[in-house]
Amino acid sequence: MAGLTELQDEQLLRMMQAGNEDAFTALYRRRQGGIYRFVLEMSGSAPLAEDVTQEVFMALIRDNRGYDPARGSLAAYLFGMARHHALRFLKRDKTYVPIPPTWDGSGDSIEVAPGDDPHSALSRRETIHSVRQAILSLPEHYREAVVLCDLNEMSYEDTASVLGCSVGTVRSRLHRGRALLVQKLGVRAETGDEAINPSRCLA
Amino acid sequence: MNCKDFENTIHELVSRRVADTTKQLEALEHAGHCLWCALRLDEETKLTEKLQAFASTLQFQRAPARVEEELLRAFRESNSAGSAPLLEIGGKRLRQGLSWGLAFAATVAAAWIMIFLWPHFHPGASDHPNRVANHRPPGASEASRTKPAPVTRATEPARAALKGASPQAAYAWTLERTALGDSASELPTDFISLGTCDDSLCMDEATLVRVSLPAEALLAFGLGTGNDYSPEGSVQADVVLGSDGVPFAIRFVD
Question: How many domains, in total, are found in chain A?
Answer without folding.
Answer: 2
